Every structure is written in C-alpha cells, then in structure tokens.
Amino acid sequence: MSSSTIRKALGAVKDQTSIGLAKVTSNIAPELDVLIVKATSHDDEPAEERHIREILHLTSGSRAHVAAAVAGCSRRLSRTRDYVVALKSLMLVHRLLADGDPSFHRELLHATRRGTRLLNLSDFRDEAHSGSWDHSAFVRTYALYLDQRLEFFLHERKQGSGSNASSSAKWPVTA
C-alpha cells in the first residue's frame, strides 16, 4: 500500500472521528460542526458547495450559529497539520466573510481579540505531506491576507460610517 493511500485512509478516519465527536460534544449547533468538518475534509477534492451553502444558511441571522461557526473554523484550523484542511478552512472563512451574515465579521474580529488564533497561522507547517513547504507558505500567506482584509474592512466601515456602521455592508470579494 502506497503512502498516499495510507494518508488518504488516515484522513478519512480522522474526518469520521471528528464528525462523530461533533455530533456528541457540540452544545450549540452539532449540525453546523458536522458541516464544517465535511466542508474541510482531508480529501483533495474541493469542498462540496451544498455544505458551504448549508453553513451560510445556518449562520444567517443567528448570532449563536455565527459564534459556533467561528469556534468550529478556529478549532479546525488550530488542530490541523494538513495543508488541505487548512486551505479548505480558510476558503470557508473567506466565503463566510464574503457571502455570510455581516455579524460574522464582528464575531471573527472579537474572537481574534479575545485570543483565538483563527487567522494567525504564522507558524503553520504541513506535517502530513512530504515536501510541502510551498503549500504551507501559501496557507500562511492566505491567512495573513484574510486577516489584513478583515482589519481593513472593519476599519473602513468604522471610518466611513462612524459608530453607526451599517450592519448590512458586505465584504468586497476583490482586493
């Protein structure tokens, strides 16, 4: 059995374990935690759009679900040493920032200021693949980009609207 086959099998086992744990241990939104694990799985395929759409739907208009989504993404990013999972997690955060509930921006910023290292992946290193230093560098750079875009967006909203910033403002997708 080749090492890539073993790695894929191990990734599938990790994902199934994470799904089982999410169903049992999640207090607020177990279905959301399961969807986050499914959207950020270890397989080399892109995340299924239906999982992302369901996450967007669950987080729309529910502060509890938004907080749970931030916690779930943070947990996924902090525990992984696989660039595929990290990249999918960052892409999910990007999608939630671009298309999700506006309160996701604030919750993400508050979580970061409370000490959650959600977008601080400066020490990320892929340990699941051999010779993946370039993937690790990309993950670190993408996380830094998202962090800086979030800070810029929130700063601009604060400057442009004063203390009565519009909660309906969307995060621009293009830089």
From TrEMBL:
**The UniProt record lists the keyword Ubl conjugation:** no
Q: What keyword terms does UniProt attach to this protein?
A: Coated pit, Cytoplasmic vesicle, Endocytosis, Golgi apparatus, Membrane
Single Gene Ontology BP annotation: clathrin-dependent endocytosis
Q: Where does the UniProt annotation locate this protein?
A: Cytoplasmic vesicle, Clathrin-coated vesicle; Golgi apparatus; Membrane, Clathrin-coated pit
Q: Where does the ENTH domain start and stop, copy by copy?
A: 24-160
Under Gene3D superfamilies, the record lists: 1.25.40.90
Superkingdom of this entry's organism? Eukaryota
Q: What is its main location?
A: cytoplasm
Return the protein name.
Answer: ENTH domain-containing protein
What terms describe the molecular function in GO for this protein? Answer: phospholipid binding
Q: Coiled-coil region(s) at which residues? A: none
Q: Which GO cellular component terms are attached? A: clathrin-coated pit; clathrin-coated vesicle; Golgi apparatus
| Pfam families attached to this UniProt entry | ANTH (PF07651)
* SMART domains associated with the record: ENTH
Is Protein transport included in the keywords of this UniProt record? no
